[in-house]
Amino acid sequence: MLNETVVTLQGWVGSQVALRQAGEAAVASFRVACTPRRFNRRTGEWVDGTTQWYTVNAWRGLADTCAASLRSGDPVLVHGRLSVHTWVNSSGVEVTGYEVEAQLVGHDLNRGTSSFTRTQRQEQPAGVGDRPRSDGAAA
């Protein structure tokens, strides 16, 4: 993970979660809107900044739990790797999009309550996912 930009977003789910298969892996994609709020001391009021939109992609088990847990309008925290993509749209305008490959996703408990249910992981065949031990012995 050298030279990667890792971010934590605090925002609101702005779309339904779309679950799809990419080869053998499940991928959940959804949009998150982040709108900063600042207190203006001169006026004594809170002011919304410009909303930034991010596409979030969650893979494998995280994809399944995002699809089962998140709904449009939910307050969320997303932590993952940021990538920026630039392209020219059909109108000939250069557009920049921000994507986050999620490592962690959760509800923002500053905004409400949530109920947690542990998911059962499928057992893997022997040897799959085993890490070698540091002493060289079999795991």
UniProtKB/TrEMBL annotation:
Keyword GTP-binding applies: no
Listed GO biological process terms: DNA replication
UniProt-recorded Gene Ontology molecular function terms: single-stranded DNA binding
PROSITE patterns: SSB (PS50935)
UniProt keyword annotation of Nucleus present: no
Keyword entries, A-Z: DNA-binding
Residues spanning the membrane: none
Polar residues composition bias: residue spans: 111-123
Protein known as: Single-stranded DNA-binding protein
Organism: Nocardioides acrostichi
